[in-house]
Amino acid sequence: MSQIHSAFEILGQHGNDPRMGHHQTLPRLLFEQASKLGDAPFVRMKRFGIWQSMSWQSFSQDVLALAHALRARGLQKGDVVGVISENLPESYLIEYAAQAVGASVTCLYPDASSDELMYILNHCKAKILFAQDQEQVDKTLSITLLAEQLQTIVFLEGRGLWNYQDARLLEFHLLLEEGRNPSDQDQKFLAEIIQSAKDTDIAALCYTSGTTGRPKGVVLTHRYLLDSAYRLVASFKIPPHIEYLSYISPAWAAEQITGLALALLAPAVVHFSEKASTVQSDLRELSPQFLLFTPRQWEMMSAEVAAAMLDAGPYRRRLVDWAFRAGAQGNWKSWLAEILVLRAIRDNLGLKRAIISLSAGSGMSAEVFHRFHAMGVPLRNLYGSTEYGLVSAHWGGAFDPKTLGRLLMVDPSVGEPLRARLSEDNELQLHGASGFGGYYLDETSTAQTFHEDGFFKTGDAILLNETSEFIFMDRIKDLRKLQNGKSFPPQFIENQLRSSQYIRDAIAIGDETRDFVTVLVNIDSHLVGRYAERIGLAWSTFSDLSQMPQVHELISKTLTQINSVMELHAQALRFALFPKELDADDSELTRSRKLRREVIELRYAPLIGAMYSGEDFCPLDVTVKYQDGTEAHVRQDVRITSVRS
Amino acid sequence: MTEPVLEARNLSLSFGAIKALDDVNFSLYGNELLSIIGPNGAGKSSLLNCLCGFYQPHQGSVRFMGEDVTHLPPHRYAELGLARTFQGIQTYQSMTVRENILCGFHAHMTSGLFASFFYWGQVQREETAFTLEAESIIEFLELEDIRHARVAELPYGVRKRVDLGRALAMRPKVLILDEPMAGMNIEEKSDLARYILDIKDGRQISVILVEHDMDVVMDISDRIVVMEWGTTIAQGAPEAIRTNPRVISAYLGLEE
């Protein structure tokens, strides 16, 4: 057992915001807010090209109706309901309704494969699944293993399902109608269930993305969700009726907290974009006050500005460069930059009214962070774990892009404040607050995550800076040692690389059998393509573009810069560019776009070998899986370049 | 079988000495996708033009919903519920996607020029109602992200979809598509095929499709009519047509 340095223990604090959880459940809180707020808008969505609101009153009535319908169809306390859908008002409705009956939900990413769907639904024994559309219904019907277990498949969009005969299929609106006129007795029963529910009941199951092994279902209790939401509300002083954009998937614990729970606690007005393809224009129309994106999404947004600038004339480009520099200075120049440039950029990105903008999920490079700050966007890091909820963030004004901030303030009605300490190998361990509810039906794994004295082991390697703020290094198991015994942080190198506008993803290679670090890079075909056009290169496909010597030259420059801040042993000495884009369909990324190292290192083993054996080219044969399930082979000579120091 | 929605009886049409159509008979039933195929010059376009009133047949009649409509002017066909898209792209380039679709409601609009100029209550209500309907078509054809984009800026496959949307705005009972897939790549073709099937199943509109891509035709049609030299040489389900010796010889030439 690793030794604990008690000197490294940090104690968080209680919040003083009155909006506490008070042992409520989400449905109880919803009905309480609805009786207070009545006709005030709770949900806004775009229908037929126009933004439409739904009040607290009518939303909570729909929740009740759906709860009655679900109960009539046999849903009971302790059951699990599956939801596979993009973010829609209906997905909120379903979750609250299932919880009102005493059941819980597990949300899945809409692009989950039928394998993932099968494993998760089978594991949690869901009898009812809500599927968004024909695609999800087809996926579900194809799983014969679930034929017995799944009794009802409710679809939200009927398009294309006109001629489906399966008796288990049911349209959402018909189900909702079933619960519209409950008998007095049913009303009494449901009211009792809602009143008797405890805040320690399971509200949702969140299956972890599984960068290692099979996904585990993390239990999120009502107390966990409301406590985590409180940590944000209190620490960031989130004003009531803040306008929130529901964008990240509810399959991720973060949306369960910042969306489903915080919307009730703060309360917030939740907005839904019309479709995945209209998010950008919807974002601009809405300009929400509160948003939470992953670092990749922020990086893409920043890359978008960079891409637009590549198309602009030289004068405009210079003006914007100047404005970005001036914006950070905080004098009359930044005032001028604000009026001339920055306000318009924020407006275009839909960040005009953003007062709380958070980045969570993995590390983000300081450069992207600074770029948004120069634009006048108050971007902050947020850190948490699915198991333990939100842990730390930049709150109370201070922010250092290198850190993850300080421990958040905890709901006093829940328990003691968060306590954090570091083990000998720098693992962050946590105690206090609502705690970890365990893995669903998996006591062995649950027990393994706790230290003997009850601290929860996050598995994250953390450093503390002089003001006791967290600096994220890597997952403990992902820190890598080289042959010479010295370790290096692969994620840090990768984040630095990704901050280049030309790089979409990168993976740093090196272990006990290697004596130096190498890098594989997935270029941003859009921006590198523009670059190639500008310097007059002709190219056809991604694999063609990625192997041009001039493109290698471009990436090499970036690596030289990164190496200049690294210790000698951790510098990347050689690199190659992927001849195809990394893709979740090829299992190279998780659905939330995290790299799957094992898969990549296995698939590109010959290329990695060639980088270490000093060759300049490596013939590579890669299998590509298309979305319709067909496969193709890409055969390519992949170029390997040494980084000039 | 139920009453046909659209029926051609003994249609004949000639241009001078050339017999473009010679005693053509076929029926289109409710909720059916009927394809008309045949080599170039077989008379497919002439037949379509007769079916929607552009040409007056010299003999025979066209019956729509049980009524003889042969001698009605083309705009009456449109009002009755017969819409058509043409070969190539016929959208209004400088208008947005939504404006193009709104144009399709032309036959159903009642506001006059004078009333529209003052934009009084009734006109406003009418515009709202039509915009709502246009939006439901936009949703159906998944054009939400480009509803305000100018059509001229859009790729070919998408413009064809806008064209289709405008035809749907005529609230047709029968939709005639004249070579909608000409010049499209495979992806655009399969997209469009999906939309055509959805129109049939989801909106209960019967479709007549003239198309050269045999894969598409065999894949999505309920029945096929084969034409050669102005006459129909075969009618039936795709499997029957595929193996019909007369059809094979018409397409591949006779073995002597």
Task: Summarize this structure as a short list of keywords or feature phrases.
heterodimer, A: 645 residues, alpha/beta, five-stranded antiparallel sheet, disordered N terminus, B: 256 residues, six-stranded mixed sheet, four-stranded antiparallel sheet, 10 helices
Report what the structure shows:
Chain A is of the alpha/beta class and 645 residues long. Chain A contains 21 helices and 28 strands. Chain A starts with 9 loop residues before the first strand and ends with a strand. Chain B is globular.
The average pLDDT value of chain A, as a whole number, equals 90
Number of helices of chain A: 21
Structure summary, number of beta strands of chain A: 28
Please give the oligomerization state of what you see: heterodimer
Shape call of chain B: globular
Proportion of beta-strand residues of chain A: 15-25%
Distance between the termini of chain A: 42 Å
Strand order of the largest sheet of chain B: 6-7-8-3-9-10
Question: What's the N-to-C terminus distance of chain B?
Answer: 40 Å
Shape of chain A: globular
How many DSSP H or I helices of chain B? 10
Biggest sheet of chain A, open or closed, and with what strands and sense? 7 strands, mixed
The residue fraction in helices of chain B comes out at 25-40%
N-to-C order of helices and strands of chain B: EEEHEEHEHHHHEHEHEEHH
> Can you tell me the residue ranges of chain A where pLDDT is under 50 for at least 5 consecutive residues?
1-6
Alpha carbon gyration radius of chain A: 25 Å
What's the gist of this structure?
The complex is a heterodimer of chains A (645) and B (256). Chain A has 21 helices and 28 strands.
How are the elements arranged and paired?
The complex is a heterodimer of chains A (645) and B (256).
Chain A: E1 10-11, H1 26-37, E2 41-47, E3 50-55, H2 56-72, E4 80-84, H3 89-100, E5 104-108, H4 114-124, E6 128-131, H5 134-141, E7 152-155, E8 169-171, H6 172-178, H7 184-196, E9 202-207, E10 217-221, H8 222-236, E11 242-246, H9 253-265, E12 268-272, H10 279-286, E13 290-293, H11 295-311, H12 314-327, H13 332-349, E14 356-359, H14 366-375, E15 379-385, E16 389-393, E17 406-407, E18 419-422, E19 427-431, H15 443-448, E20 456-464, E21 470-475, E22 480-481, E23 487-488, H16 490-498, E24 503-509, E25 517-523, H17 525-534, H18 542-546, H19 549-563, E26 572-577, H20 597-603, H21 605-612, E27 617-625, E28 631-642
Parallel strand pairs in A: 2-12, 4-5, 4-6, 5-9, 6-7, 7-8, 11-12, 13-14, 14-15, 25-26
Antiparallel strand pairs in A: 1-18, 2-3, 9-10, 15-16, 16-17, 18-19, 19-20, 20-21, 22-23, 24-25, 26-28, 27-28
Helix pairs in contact in A: 1-2, 1-3, 1-9, 2-3, 2-6, 8-9, 12-13, 12-14
Chain B: E1 6-15, E2 18-28, E3 33-37, H1 44-51, E4 59-64, E5 67-68, H2 74-80, E6 82-85, H3 97-103, H4 113-118, H5 121-140, H6 156-168, E7 174-178, H7 186-203, E8 206-210, H8 214-220, E9 223-228, E10 231-236, H9 238-243, H10 245-252
Parallel strand pairs in B: 3-8, 3-9, 6-7, 7-8
Antiparallel strand pairs in B: 1-2, 1-4, 4-5, 9-10
Helix pairs in contact in B: 3-6
